[in-house]
Write a structure and sequence with these properties.
There is one protein chain. The chain is an alpha/beta fold. The protein has one domain: TIM Barrel, CATH 3.20.20.380. It is built from 8 helices and 10 strands. Helix 7 packs parallel to helix 8. The longest helix has 17 residues. The radius of gyration is 18 Å and the shape is globular.
């Protein structure tokens, strides 16, 4: 069983490795489902980690139908990742009709080589998952991250299992979204997945001693300024243990 941990900062990446992750997916902006992190963050994490690093290539939140300028920015981010020595990149581009944009994805995959490439959950927004599966295989994606076209993978186990069966080893199908201590065993048992993707999220309190009582968090009232997102290494270990016990 291979374990991929999605992380959003340097501390989380280090803790994912400490917990025994095989690979991280490095992103920014968890509130938008992940966008491309800064070159500085990528570079520091590459220096400090000895496990695989895959970087999200997504210029913004929202849909996966991109303008020419957004597509150009994705190309430049892939070139940056290659220069910084990461192992893979993660992206997905759709046409307005809900099909995989094979031409654009193929262009990015060619640019990314020799890095590997994962198709992210843009796959879950396609109009025909089996057509999308064949498109991803044809253009050379290494794997597909999917929740079975549902909000959470536990709700999409039937489709995930069908995708794994139909793929016949031609591509890795990796369940993700809502994979945790309560769901991982059922997901692995029902889908026969060999890779899983999860966050093992934990929050820790800021070490700031001075706190402005008039501002709970930049742009929010939730106190987010002083709740920092990280990864719990013990959760990583526990979820792996449960996945491998099936």
């Amino acid at each position: 069983m291979k374990i991929e941990i999605v992380v959003y900062n340097i501390e989380s990446a280090l803790k994912a490795q400490a917990g025994g992750a095989d690979r991280i997916e490095l992103c920014d902006n968890p509130g938008e489902g992940g966008t491309t992190p800064s070159a500085g963050t990528i570079g520091i994490i590459r220096e400090k980690l000895n496990i695989q690093i895959y970087v999200m290539i997504r210029p913004r939140g929202g849909d996966f139908f991109y303008s020419d300028d957004e597509f150009l920015s994705m190309k430049k981010d892939i070139e940056t990742c290659k220069h910084l020595g990461v192992d893979g990149v993660v992206f997905g581009i759709l046409k307005a009709d809900g099909t995989i944009d094979q031409a654009r994805c193929d262009e990015l995959i060619s640019l990314a080589l020799p890095m590997k490439v994962t198709c992210h959950r843009a796959f879950d927004m396609t109009c025909d998952p089996f057509e999308a599966l064949e498109a991803c295989i044809k253009i050379g994606f290494e794997r597909i991250l999917t929740a079975g076209q549902q909000a959470k993978a536990i709700l999409g186990v039937e489709l995930i299992a069908q995708l794994i069966q139909k793929s016949k080893g031609r591509i890795v199908i990796m369940p993700g979204s809502g994979v945790n201590e309560n769901t991982v065993a059922e997901i692995v048992s029902k889908t026969k997945a060999t890779e899983i993707h999860f966050s093992a999220t934990a929050l820790r309190s800021s070490e700031m001693k001075y706190r402005n009582a008039d501002i709970a968090g930049m742009g929010s009232e939730e106190g987010s300024e002083f709740n920092l997102r990280t990864v719990d290494p013990e959760r990583v270990k526990k979820i792996r243990e449960l996945a491998e016990s099936v």
